[in-house]
Amino acid sequence: MRRAEALKKAATLIEALPWLAGFHGATVVIKYGGNAMTEEHLREKFAEDVVFLRYAGLRPVVVHGGGPQINTQLDRLGIESTFTAGLRVTTPEAMQVVRMVLVGQVNRDVVGLINRHGPFAIGMSGEDAHLFTAVRKHAVVDGVSVDIGQVGEIVNVEAGAVRALLDDGRIPVISSVARSDDGTVYNVNADTAAAALAVALQASKLIVLTDVEGLYRDWRPGAGDGENEVVDRLSATELEKLLPTLSSGMVPKMEACLTAVRGGVPQAHVLDGRVPHSVLLEIFTDEGVGTMVLPDAPRAVAVPKPVTRRLTATAQLKGNDE
Ligand SMILES: Nc1ncnc2c1ncn2[C@@H]1O[C@H](COP(=O)(O)OP(=O)(O)O)[C@@H](O)[C@H]1O
Ligand SMILES: CC(=O)N[C@@H](CCC(=O)OP(=O)(O)O)C(=O)O
């Protein structure tokens, strides 16, 4: 290897040093969206990242989605499916398919994928060990409450089993299916489930992987990358104001980030799952990627990430540099 090239590689490794030190032992909840898991080479990179985190001394937890995979199966079976406010209207018939695909197919696939790189991943459904208890959720559209079927709102998280797995050096991989006290099974949006778990575990970070660069300021469907402006960083209050203007899949995603930071998680991120190794880039480099949501008054926590190189949220919204 040429000397210049070797020095560059060493510099990259050294750049990770403060982050490795700061995040040692930290719990990071990663939401792996169904749209982010469609390409094989990216799936491999994701699995490598998660195992890298584990070997680097962090405690990664994966909560996976599977919306496109559920759509495929519903189509095959001729079951119609619609979304309201980013949530699938879930009939009892659709619920059976949701559970089968998330727990029986996607969970197994993600566990297998991670275990190719190290024997750590263990699959769980939100129904296991009372992990997620839910009640029936209604969507609110134009201020009106709308019934969306067997969609759950998590009211309790029993994270003991997940903690035990983490203490044992495992990587829990969790499906967003929940049960109510009366035994009804509910479909929970995976962003929402990841946020509830991040709060229960008091994680150091929530990372939501998706198929766009981050939160776009004025999202225009169909516009390519670079044509929409990514909001680099924003505070909980700024996000709260923005929420009513958001649409489709971004609604549960950004609500999840808000829930996480309001619930004591110091940082929540929406990252582009199409960028290889975006999880490592976010955690171990100075730049950070995607959209970062911060609490209004960040607590004094052992998260070393300097934020000075990013635009402030206010400057972001004005479109100016600091
Ligand atoms: N403001 C916005 N910024 C970025 N994406 C947006 C925005 N509003 C709506 N979207 C849509 O939300 C989608 C992400 O949500 P979703 O399809 O549920 O992803 P996932 O399967 O990763 O959970 C994007 O692909 C985009 O089509
Ligand atoms: C209620 C609700 O909408 N549940 C989602 C659960 C899966 C999910 O969230 O998957 P992604 O993260 O890939 O979107 C659904 O049925 O599609």
TrEMBL record:
Subcellular location: Cytoplasm
Enzymatic reactions: N-acetyl-L-glutamate + ATP = N-acetyl-L-glutamyl 5-phosphate + ADP
Primary site of residence: cytoplasm
Metabolic or biological pathway, per its Swiss-Prot or TrEMBL entry: Amino-acid biosynthesis; L-arginine biosynthesis; N(2)-acetyl-L-ornithine from L-glutamate: step 2/4
InterPro entries xref list: AceGlu_kinase-like_sf, AcgluKinase_fam, ArgB, Asp/Glu/Uridylate_kinase, NAGK-C
Positions of the record's site feature: Transition state stabilizer: 31, 253
Binding site for substrate: 66-67, 88, 187
UniProt EC number: 2.7.2.8
Family the UniProt entry places it in: Belongs to the acetylglutamate kinase family. ArgB subfamily.
The protein, known as: Acetylglutamate kinase
Organism in which the protein naturally occurs: Streptosporangium becharense
Top-level taxonomy: Bacteria, Bacillati, Actinomycetota, Actinomycetes, Streptosporangiales
